Amino acid sequence: MNREALMEATKSQMPERRWKHVLGVVDTAVELADRFGGDRDKAWLAALLHDYTKAWPIERMEKIIREQGLPPELLEHDKELWHAHVGAWVVRTEHGIDDEEVLDAIRYHTSGREGMTKLDKIVCLADYMEPGRDFPGVNKIRELAQHNLEEALLAGFDSTIRLLLDKGKRIFPLTMLARNDLLLDVERRKQERD
Ligand SMILES: Nc1ncnc2c1ncn2[C@@H]1O[C@H](COP(=O)(O)OP(=O)(O)O)[C@@H](O)[C@H]1O
């Protein structure tokens, strides 16, 4: 499938407002790939597809999680997390996307994970800071992203974790692991620079 057809297929899964967000993430992810030496084609593709099932009915996603062997612990956590794993499964099944790096970047774009690849980081950060985003702290994340991929993403995870704590919500453990791992990564990189 060519780029235009894949864009049309993606657009048809969601309302206009979500599509605008996706286009913002695509532009931002490609910019970040250029800035930090990532693969811009993979960044484009993963960003385009990252929210493929975001607007799907919860029941449809739940069925896929249960029937296709996706991590069952997802069902005990915020439904906002489901679309990332379900989306990776659907784009492989429906569109034959078989690049594991791209699929992982889609799968972990909401939660993060330990040992995030550069592509994982780029897509996750682009999702936090695309131009349509407006939440306390987003400008700080954008400033950090001018120079430091890991510090910017760490600030993103910290803001999500803070928000979840303030709301008294459960925290998907992978995000804590991602955050701790990233902190080590940031400290290691700082030491290397000094
Ligand atoms: N570790 C987590 N545990 C529980 N919920 C989470 C976690 N990380 C993210 N979320 C939920 O997912 C939401 C963000 O999901 P995201 O895919 O970025 O959606 P959107 O693009 O609509 O912001 C957060 O606002 C929060 O409700």
TrEMBL record:
Annotated InterPro entries: Diverse_Catalytic_Enzymes (IPR051094), HD/PDEase_dom (IPR003607), HD_domain (IPR006674), YqeK (IPR005249)
Name of the coding gene: yqeK
GO MF term list: bis(5'-nucleosyl)-tetraphosphatase (symmetrical) activity; metal ion binding; nucleotide binding
Pfam families hit by this protein: HD
Enzyme Commission no: 3.6.1.41
Name by which UniProt lists this protein: bis(5'-nucleosyl)-tetraphosphatase (symmetrical)
Sorted UniProt keywords: Hydrolase, Iron, Metal-binding, Nucleotide-binding
PROSITE patterns listed in its UniProt record: HD
NCBIfam families: bis(5'-nucleosyl)-tetraphosphatase (symmetrical) YqeK
Catalytic activity: P(1),P(4)-bis(5'-adenosyl) tetraphosphate + H2O = 2 ADP + 2 H(+)
Domain of life of the native organism: Bacteria
Enzyme class, spelled out: hydrolase
Domain HD: 18-132
